[in-house]
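Final report, section 2: Outcomes. Of the targets proposed, TIGR01777 family protein is the one most frequently requested by collaborating groups, and we therefore present its record in full.
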Amino acid sequence: MTSQDKSAESKLTIANDKLASSKPTSDPKLPEECRPQPGSDFYAASVELPVSIDEAFAYHERPGCLNRLTPPWESVQLEHSDQSLQPGSRVVLKTKIAGIPVRWKARHVWYDRPHGFADVQDSGPFARWSHQHRFESIDDDRSQLTDAIEYKLPAGMAGKMFGSGKARRTIEAMFAYRHRVTKDDLQMLVDYPMSPKTIAVSGASGLVGGSLCTLLTLLGHKVLTITRDEHGDEDSIAAWGSPPEMEKFESVDAVVHLAGKSIAGKRWTPEVKQQIRDSRVEKTRSLCEGLAGLQSKPPVLICASATGIYGDRGDEILTETSAHGDDFLADVAGEWEDSCQPARDAGIRVVHTRFGIVLSPQGGALQQMLLPAKMMGGRLGSGNQWWSWIALDDVLGAIIHCIHREEVSGPVNFVSPNPIQNQDFAKVLGDVLKRPALFPAPAFALRLALGEMADDLLLASTRAVPEQLQQTGYKFRFTDLKDCLRSLLGKERKPAPQATE
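The predicted structure is given below as tokens.
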């Protein structure tokens, strides 16, 4: 154990001892549901946050916090929420335990802003679950969050005997993830001090767009979704609808345009390729022409693009100034970026986010790789092709960076500083999952199954680096692939002692 690990464990031990020594029963403000019961297990973990106690509490109180902090490896769906922490408000989650669907119904029972709130399980996978979220002020600019859970497993002593280890590991992984995300999110308030802004986002139902809308809301901004409907409402803009709808952009501080037909959804027939092109090029050009014609224009447009613009380049290191490739994806990405010219000509700052492989178990490439990896799948083709990857949270953080930093414009590679060859990616993923990467997928088999898509998406080598992000001071959450995958797949845990009542 390193000295850093010992220090972290010591801090958590102190936090647990402190909580154990001042049990909820000594606090008259806490309701009966939060009082410890004999035979319960107790877990607590703390994290220091880089913001005041009021800002830390406000983050947890805003809509979407539960979704944001739900671990991405868990099969959990928010079925209902009153969007409140007030006593009596309820949340219903749908999850699976050993493949069996389960509804987890919880109720908030204590609220003392900004010092804490608590919820209890009414029905669900535990025999008992009581969760206290406690906030303490360290100084004007720092605070501490402590999550304290008292829980009982079902089936009495048998459940405790056979399930306590698994339950403990699950809880540890969950709060390691939650605390990392909470701390990193709130650090953005320090790194990017902005007054609350109104930000319009297209592609809000997608992996990146949906996550971005949630994070922007949690950081105190107002989000308007851009839709393809004929009419919008107070929370949306029908950008390709009537002129009055387009005028809504005059009250917007930034536009983030992420919409486009999935390039991995279907085999690339001529019809599908035309749909991919039109959904990006034509729609973007129409949007930019509309923005250019406004009396009061949004200061910045962040428009999606892709590292596919470079094509298959072997071992060449690719920066934002590298030449474009000559395959289908390179052509589409090039036209996509060119379609923003009307906005640029109108004086709008335009940023092209050239996405690499965005990693999240909830969608995209990683979601598709998990099952083969668990079955000991290995490299694709030769495995020598370079993959430029980036964690989903770094995509979100880099978008906010581009909104805030006025010197950022033009193409920006949205990739981690450390691209990796496919054969090494497969090995790292296998190590995290504790599976050897034994069985390669031959190139001819991939081409037979996917056609042209196999060459452009899986076998092409793109060794891109984030020169623009690094030069303008973006701090990556993840630069090491193994660290990233461990966090995303629930393989990291905080060491924290457990107390049993």
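DSSP finds 16 helices and 23 strands in the chain.
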